[in-house]
Amino acid sequence: MRSFKEYDKDLGKTVDEQERTLAENLTQKIAEAYNGKSDLEMLKNILAEAEKGKRNGTLSNAEIEQFYQTFSPMLDGFQRAYLREIVERLKAIK
Description:
- By secondary structure, this protein is mostly helical.
- The chain has one domain (13-92).
- The protein is built from four helices and no strands.
């Protein structure tokens, strides 16, 4: 049995499930918004938004990590390593 702290009263989901849902939604929105744009343009915009979210407190390290866990299986080894590097840089922002 889980403790009461693990459940969100409104959604009935654990905090981890909520973070996973947020990350999946973010991934889908990003994919839709940047469909047809260049990789470089997409990366610049994603990084700018992520940095802004980290600095204003609307993006947590857990959400960044969940994004990585959701998105990385779609990438090859080089891309996955590059994304991991970006994720670690974003997590370091205070």
